[in-house]
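Appendix B: complex inputs.
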Amino acid sequence: MEEHLTVGRVAELAGVTVRTLHHYDEIGLVRPSSRTAVGYRAYTAGDVERLREVLAYRRLGFGLREIADLVDDPATDAVAHLRRLRGLLLDQRDRAAAMATAIDRELEARAMGIRTTPEEQLKVFGARLYDAIGSAYPATRRTEPRIAARIWDALGDARTVLNVGAGTGSYEPHDRDVTAVEPSAVMRAQRPAGAAPCVAAAAESLPFEDQSFDAAMAVSTVHHWADPVAGLREMRRVARRMVVLTYDADETGWAHRFWLIRDYMPEFAGLLVGWPSLADLAGAIGGRAEPVLIPWDCADGFFEAYWRRPEAYLDEHVRRAVSVWTRVGPQAERRAVSRLADDLSSGRWAERNREIVALDAVDLGLRLLVA
Ligand SMILES: C[S@@+](CC[C@H](N)C(=O)[O-])C[C@H]1O[C@@H](n2cnc3c(N)ncnc32)[C@H](O)[C@@H]1O
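Resulting structure:
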């Protein structure tokens, strides 16, 4: 039998006042649609689902009118709401990380007696993660030719290619007609002279007609999108072939193999929570997943790139070009780096990682989705 909850019980569970619930009832936002045996209004499972959506949008700062439009939209089911809410929360988390980074910078500048300009102070509020960390990107992030060859091979005979989340364009093929999409102004500004034209947009809403490209590619970017599945569907809509370099977040055996996560950064697990499974991502484009090994001398300085060159992680330039370090926060970063430095000088790192040091390339969860 379906359980019905009283107003008092719902208020207690959700951590809101009974008055709030009465107000939502009065304005027709969430109406308890059942009655208890003694005639009081009671919430059904469906009412609770709607209330949960309302409270989550409220917490994200939406106004009640706006929320009413969102939850009444017949085209959006409960799963779509959860996906959208999850994306908005991650976006909020990234913005908070970007803001904290900008504040750290200002504190450092002030400590050196430098005052930031009014423009710089205000920019902090609109900061997106890559607007805050993007200027450090080109220092170590560039094309890794062996990975590029896999991507270009998978593009097949595509002549027109859309590169979504293009950044500075590290993996754009030079022998095809490429259009790039990149939401961060800082990243767009760092595209080299002569790079493909770049449109300011996000994956979740691509400003192109259906089937306007032979292929769409996305490299090391899907985990940054507010709604990865929606973004992949958009790519599918605008292109016939798809090539996506991403991570396998469900078979995380590789996380145990990667000593940086295993021994120094347990916080990494938190970044994967709620991340869509590889099957969900592959399902969104109807594609297959192929493992991509990371060579020991990988030229592109992404998070796992230095698995056989541990000293690299002690270098601030290496860390600043990888969002993971900003996302786990300065405390976790300081602790990880200082423990790693200790273990490298004591020989403990070498002792623990004898097996991996003997390899030339390793599977650390990188996957190429091709459809
Ligand atoms: C790690 S960089 C990868 C850049 C480039 N693809 C490469 O391989 O060098 C991730 C990029 O994704 C972009 N990005 C973040 N959210 C996005 C979104 N919703 N849609 C498209 N790109 C996004 C960031 O601005 C950033 O430039």
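The mean pLDDT is 91.
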